[in-house]
Every structure is written in structure tokens, then in C-alpha cells.
């Protein structure tokens, strides 16, 4: 029987198996739902196994249906030296501090090699590029080796920001990858832009095609909706007797 270990802080706890010497990924839904969309792709493509969950009385009353089965809304997955913390809801700001402490405590206990978290940046026009930020000169140098543009200034919101600062305090290398989004709506194409970068960072081979296909379908539906709205708003031709 696999031993489940609890890592508990003031308002939340991690109940999971221990996985030593892994790279930790964090995906939670900020603008564009980038982390959540990419996280689900990794679960499917890498056939990741669920090894635990995070729980808190501050979480919304929510269960997630997956293939007809209700699962916990914030889960922990693992495969071949990679651990993924994946949330299906926006983390309440009052929980982020304690949750980041719990995740970093888990990483310390398991001697995790580092952290990669996913976020987004709002742009006026998409170029398809991915930007990065890090919590140390060492981690920043590794991003530079990938020829990623670095965000020199600004704020990192949500759990990503908390984790970058908490890991820095514990001298755990961490980086954040930013996809370009235009607004708050789900953006599979933006999430797909992170896949090639992540493949290089982790030496894995994840296929972004499912996200690109989903993006095409969403964009086609939006075009049809725009046409329908336009036709409904067009003035009727005058009728002369």
C-alpha cells in the first residue's frame, strides 16, 4: 500500500504520495486558463497518475467530473520525475499564501529539483511568443539558454507569484512561463505556445495538436456567432408599395 503523507499549513493541506528529486509544475487558471489547459494536456499526453490532492475549507464547493467520475478540484499528478499540481478553479487570494507555503514545504521534503509555473500576459496583438521570469540569476540564465524573452518589470499574479517568492526564500530554482492572451477567455492556442518550450526544458515530447484543434473549433464557433449577431443587427430593407 502506498503511503499518503499530509503537508498541512494554516488553511490548507496536501495529501499525497512523496516523489523524490522531481521537477514540480504548477497549473492553475489565471487569465486565459493557461495553466489549467496545459496541465490537462500534460495529464493526458504523459499519462500522469494522480497521487494526491490539496484540500481547504476555503475552496469553493466544487467537484470536477472526469469521464463521468467526480474528482477533487485540486489534484497532484506524477510521472517519470515530474510532479504536477493542477487546479480547476481560481485560487482564492486569501489561500495563496498558505498554499504556496504547503507546496514549497512538500518540495523541500522531497528534495525537488525546481519549479515551473504557468501564467499569461495580456497583449494588444498576439505574436505567438512565450516570455519568462525567474526567482534567481541561476534560473534566469537557464531561461536565457532557451532564447526566451524575459519580462523585466511587472507583477506576477496568483499562485505563480507566491510560489516564485516562496521558492526564492528556500533557494529552490523556479521559473514562470507566460503565454500571450487578449482577454480572460479560455485560450487553448496560447496554452499550446508553451508546449515547445516545456518540451525543451523537460526533455519530453508532448504534442500540442489537441490544443490547436480545440482552438480552431472555438475560433470557428466565435466567427459563426459574430456573423449571426451581425445579421440580426442589420436594418431591414425598406418595403415600398
From TrEMBL:
<dbReference type="Pfam" id="PF09754">
    <property type="entry name" value="PAC2"/>
</dbReference>
<protein>
    <submittedName>
        <fullName>Proteasome assembly chaperone family protein</fullName>
    </submittedName>
</protein>
<dbReference type="InterPro" id="IPR004425">
    <property type="entry name" value="MJ0106-like"/>
</dbReference>
<dbReference type="GO" id="GO:0000502">
    <property type="term" value="C:proteasome complex"/>
</dbReference>
<keyword id="KW-0647">Proteasome</keyword>
<dbReference type="InterPro" id="IPR019151">
    <property type="entry name" value="Proteasome_assmbl_chaperone_2"/>
</dbReference>
<dbReference type="InterPro" id="IPR038389">
    <property type="entry name" value="PSMG2_sf"/>
</dbReference>
Amino acid at each position: 500500500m502506498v503511503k499518503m503523507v499530509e503537508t498541512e499549513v494554516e488553511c490548507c493541506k496536501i495529501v499525497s504520495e512523496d516523489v523524490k528529486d522531481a521537477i514540480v509544475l504548477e497549473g492553475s487558471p489565471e487569465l486565459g486558463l493557461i495553466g489549467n489547459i496545459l496541465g490537462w494536456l500534460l495529464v493526458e499526453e504523459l499519462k500522469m497518475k494522480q497521487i494526491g490532492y490539496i484540500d481547504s475549507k476555503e475552496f469553493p464547493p466544487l467537484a470536477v467530473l472526469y469521464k463521468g467520475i467526480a474528482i477533487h478540484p485540486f489534484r497532484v499528478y506524477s510521472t517519470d520525475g515530474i510532479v504536477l499540481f493542477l487546479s480547476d478553479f481560481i485560487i482564492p487570494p486569501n489561500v495563496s499564501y498558505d498554499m504556496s507555503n504547503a507546496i514549497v514545504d512538500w518540495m523541500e521534503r522531497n528534495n525537488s529539483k525546481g519549479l515551473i509555473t504557468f501564467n499569461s500576459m495580456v497583449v494588444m496583438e498576439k505574436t505567438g511568443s512565450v516570455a519568462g521570469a525567474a526567482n534567481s540569476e541561476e534560473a534566469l540564465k537557464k531561461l536565457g539558454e532557451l532564447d526566451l524573452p524575459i519580462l523585466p518589470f511587472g507583477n506576477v499574479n496568483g499562485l505563480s507569484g507566491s510560489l516564485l517568492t516562496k521558492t526564492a526564500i528556500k533557494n529552490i530554482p523556479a521559473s514562470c512561463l507566460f503565454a500571450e492572451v487578449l482577454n480572460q477567455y479560455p485560450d487553448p492556442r496560447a496554452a499550446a505556445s508553451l508546449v515547445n518550450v516545456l518540451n525543451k526544458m523537460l526533455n519530453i515530447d508532448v504534442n500540442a495538436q489537441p490544443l490547436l484543434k480545440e482552438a480552431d473549433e472555438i475560433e470557428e464557433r466565435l466567427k459563426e456567432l459574430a456573423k449571426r449577431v451581425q445579421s440580426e443587427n442589420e436594418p431591414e430593407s425598406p418595403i415600398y408599395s
